[in-house]
Design goal:
Elements lengths: L8 E4 L10 H5 L2 E4 L11 E2 L7 E4 L13 E4 L23 H9 L3 E7 L22 E2 L3 E3 L9 E3 L2 E3 L1 H6 L1 H4 L3 E3 L7 E2 H4 E3 L15 E12 L7 E6 L8 E6 H6 L10 E6 L2 E3 L2 E5 L6 E3 L5 H4 L3
Parallel strand pairs: 6-10, 6-11, 13-14, 16-19
Antiparallel strand pairs: 1-2, 1-3, 4-5, 7-10, 8-9, 11-12, 14-15, 14-17, 15-16, 17-20, 18-19
């Protein structure tokens, strides 16, 4: 069980609806914490991560009879809308035919990621401004035998991309509903269901399965532990109370080119890799160029509502 409830508050806006509602108006509406809930708000509460209806459980009493704390949950009728804040086991998507899978790729409902870019490409960055948008670095990859057929063991030869986490973050609000087949995966899964908040990771993540996964976390601080570009930059992320600390440890020059600096506090970083034990805590290390990126700040609330 995560150390914190996934949905910290709900937007309250009577008369607003997911279909056709102005999202900027919803974002500016009252934020209702669990202890501020009133029964007349039922039906007018919305998730800050996906904007669909949520309800407080229990609806009336302050606490459950068994002393569990109340929480917000999504309504079942919106389960087709992806949300990082939804407490849900990832469900893999399979396809009946090659044609169906190919059509899903063409309509941008499915992405086959052959691998993440390993080396920094020769791309001229535009100086100045907030590091919030990145050059398009994704390139077409080879045809890939992908085991996403409906029948057990059935694979389809499908177009793939060699991509970056930055490319996934660039249109995150759209991509969160998209199915991704990531390196070493066995299923295509919606991006929102693939993501794990570092704040939910405990030490037992080191046991058993060592498959790389997609993580994100809020930056608490970032500093160069040395004096050179090859020195390690220690980027501290908000972590589980059961974990002493969590750092992303990468060369300072690499991080600078990624926009991760002393001024990155409050930003969200996303990365694909394995988590290792490091010192008294946990860390992410040895990430390639395409395996880490800052999430554009405009998507922060979709991942970690304040």
């Amino acid at each position: 069980m995560p150390a914190k409830r996934k949905i910290p508050y709900a937007h309250h806006l009577p008369g607003w609806g997911f279909d056709g509602g102005n999202r900027e108006a919803l974002k500016a509406s009252r934020r209702v914490a669990l202890d501020e809930y009133e029964e007349e708000m039922m039906g007018s509460l919305f998730c800050p991560g996906c904007y669909t209806n949520v309800e407080r459980t229990p609806k009336e009493k302050d606490i459950f009879a068994n002393q569990r704390e109340p929480f917000y949950r999504h309504l079942k009728r919106w389960q087709h809308i992806a949300c990082v804040l939804r407490a849900k086991k990832p469900v893999g998507k399979r396809y009946d035919t090659w044609e169906e899978a190919k059509r899903a790729i063409e309509h941008e409902h499915l992405a086959i990621v052959k691998e993440f870019l390993q080396e920094k490409p020769e791309v001229r960055l535009i100086p100045g401004g907030e590091y919030d948008e990145t050059p398009v670095e994704d390139i077409g990859g080879p045809l890939s035998q992908t085991p996403i057929g409906r029948h057990q063991g059935e694979s389809f030869e499908l177009p793939s991309t060699i991509t970056t986490i930055a490319g996934i973050c660039r249109n995150f609000e759209k991509n969160k509903d998209k199915y991704f087949f990531l390196p070493m995966a066995t299923h295509a899964v919606k991006l929102a269901e693939l993501l794990t908040d570092v704040a939910d990771v405990e030490y037992d993540v080191l046991k058993g399965d060592r498959t790389p996964r997609l993580y994100y976390g809020k930056i608490i601080s970032s500093r160069n532990a040395g004096s050179y570009d090859y020195s390690t930059r220690m980027t501290k992320l908000a972590c589980n109370p059961a974990v002493k600390d969590f750092y992303v440890k990468l060369p300072n020059g690499f991080c600078r080119d990624k926009g991760i600096t002393d001024d990155s506090k409050g930003r969200i970083v996303m990365f694909f890799g394995t988590i290792v034990e490091s010192g008294i805590g946990l860390a992410a290390t040895d990430l390639a160029w395409g395996e880490i990126a800052l999430v554009p700040a405009k998507y922060n609330e979709l991942l970690i509502p304040e």
